[in-house]
Each structure stands twice: as C-alpha cells, then as structure tokens.
C-alpha cells in the first residue's frame, strides 16, 4: 500500500469531530454487483468468522465483500483508523424489501464501555441510495455520548442528522459510538447495505499520513458545533481534544486553552 491510500490529518480530525467519514463512490461497480449477488445467494448472511479473528482471514475467496475489503483505498481507511492486523468483530448484511415501511429506532451498536481506543464500523452501500430508499441515518458528533443500545430510541429527529443519500459504492467509516438507525425503504426495489465492525490490535497513534499533522485547520474542525447538543458544544470540544491528544500522542495539545485551563492545578 502506498502512502497515498492513507487518510490525511484533516480527514482524521473530521472523524474525531463528526464520528464518521463518507467516501462517495469508492467501490467499483463490478464489486458492488458481486456483493449484491452474494447477498441474494445468502453467502454473506450470518457470522463470517469468530469475533476477534484477523479480518484478513475472512472472505478470502469472495470477489464481492472480500474484494471490497481488499481494495487499497479501503485498506487505507482501515489502517489509518485502526491500524494493521485489525480484527473482525461482527458484521450485518441487510436486505430491506421493497415498500418496507419500518425504519429502525435510533441506537448505538454494542456499547458497554467508555474507552478512548475505538473500533470502526464500515457501512457499505452497493447501489444508488436515494433518500426514499433509506440510507442509514447518522447523527454526526454523537460518538462521545456513549448511549447504550436502544436507550436513545425514543428520539425521532435531530437537528443536523445525516441521511446517507449516495451513489453506488459509497462507504461510511464510523466510530463505534456513533448514533444511527436504518430508514424505511419506500421504493419498489430491494435495498442492500453491509456493516462490518473492526477492532484495532495496535495503539491508535499517528497511523495515518501525517505529512499535514500541523495543519492549522485542525483546531477549527475540532471546534465544530453540530447544534443538536444545545449549549454543550464546549463539552464536546473537550471530548475531541482528549481523543486528538490520544491519537497524536501529545498531552499538551489544546484548542482555545479549554483543557489547559482545567488542568492548571498548582500544588
Ligand atoms: O440498515 C441500516 O441502515 C442500519 C443497520 C444497523 O443499524 C446496523 O447494521 O448496525
Ligand atoms: Fe446498528
């Protein structure tokens, strides 16, 4: 893999601020078509392997889901966020029938922890997904609110929620804490989507292409206000500074003196 397949610092900062990155039309159409065939032929449903197994050991003969995961661009995303030798956690292969009027409730997948280390979830959309077909609905900036499973299901709509309306081959890489829900499929066609959760095996530290590490945009990105959390925006910025310090391995990093001020505790 060449360095150019790795994400850059600005992308990682956006991941830290929003909890997700969207890669439009990343996967070529022959792989998209093959993935849908594999889904139709019931080859991807169920567990692909044992949780905690190397991801690279799975789907090695697949020209669909396997080929998607082996794409250099996808490998670059995985390596930038969770590093080499990453592990398969679980996956979910969705076929939502035509005219399926129910969506999912807002939820977070399998959160039982408050660690700084994070897993990623790839959400892969193998065909064009207009709004009425139900691209997953995400809440940018929700990943530090470690809600448990469907504890958030009474919410309906948020200011700033992001429905994935996309072209075929689009991939979303999300932090494991990100709030999301499936949407109804109001079209006459089957809707397909595959999610894969991936764990790191290395300390998540400067894993991306760091040639733009000191980009001055980083502070602005980490200060983004998603609005839905009302006046809590400063608390969210503090959460992001902590994750950024962890990722760049520098506990002196700050934005606007937010953490430095509260860490000033003269003896
Ligand atoms: O089908 C979707 O859009 C989301 C499904 C989901 O929540 C999941 O796979 O974790
Ligand atoms: Fe989910």
Can you characterise this structure?
- With 267 residues, the protein is α+β, with helices and mostly antiparallel strands.
- The protein contains seven helices and nine strands.
- It has a six-stranded antiparallel β-sheet. It has a three-stranded antiparallel β-sheet with strand order 6-5-8, with no helix packed on it.
- It starts with 8 loop residues before the first helix and ends with a helix.
- Residues 107, 109, 180 line the site of fe (ii) ion.
Our measurement of the CA-to-CA distance between the termini, rounded to an integer number of angstroms, reads 50 Å
Give the DSSP E fraction (strand runs of 2 or more residues). 15-25%
Mean pLDDT: 96
> How would a crystallographer describe the biggest sheet?
6 strands, antiparallel
Compounds present? 2-oxoglutaric acid, fe (ii) ion
The CATH class label is Mainly Beta
Q: What would you say the CATH architecture is? A: Sandwich
Which stretches of 5+ consecutive residues score pLDDT under 50? none
The SSE string, one letter per element, is HEHEHHEEEEEEEHHH
CATH topology: Jelly Rolls
Structural class assignment: alpha+beta
Short description:
The chain is of the alpha+beta class and 267 residues long. It has seven helices and nine strands.
């Amino acid at each position: 893999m060449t360095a150019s397949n790795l994400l850059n610092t600005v992308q990682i900062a956006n991941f830290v601020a929003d909890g997700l990155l969207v890669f439009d039309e990343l996967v070529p159409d022959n792989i998209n078509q093959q993935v849908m065939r594999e889904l139709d032929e019931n080859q991807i449903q169920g567990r692909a392997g044992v949780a905690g197994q190397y991801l690279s050991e799975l789907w090695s003969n697949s020209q669909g889901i396997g080929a998607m995961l082996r794409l250099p661009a996808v490998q670059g995303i995985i390596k930038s966020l969770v590093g080499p030798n990453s592990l398969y956690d679980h996956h979910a292969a969705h076929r939502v029938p035509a005219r399926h009027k129910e969506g999912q409730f807002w939820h977070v997948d399998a959160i039982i922890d408050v660690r700084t280390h994070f897993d990623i979830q790839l959400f892969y959309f193998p065909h064009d997904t207009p709004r009425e077909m139900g691209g997953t609905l995400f809440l940018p900036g929700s990943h530090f609110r470690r809600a448990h499973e469907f504890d958030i299901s009474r919410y309906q709509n948020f200011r700033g929620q992001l429905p994935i309306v996309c072209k075929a081959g689009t991939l979303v890489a999300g932090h494991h804490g990100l709030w999301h829900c499936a949407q109804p499929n109001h079209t006459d066609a089957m809707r397909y989507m595959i999610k894969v959760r991936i764990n790191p095996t290395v300390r998540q530290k400067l894993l991306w292409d760091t040639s733009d590490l000191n980009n001055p945009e980083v502070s602005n990105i980490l200060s983004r206000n998603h609005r839905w959390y009302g006046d809590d925006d400063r608390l969210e910025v503090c959460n992001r500074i902590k994750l950024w310090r962890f990722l760049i391995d520098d506990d002196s990093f700050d934005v606007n003196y937010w953490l430095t001020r509260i860490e000033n505790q003269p003896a």
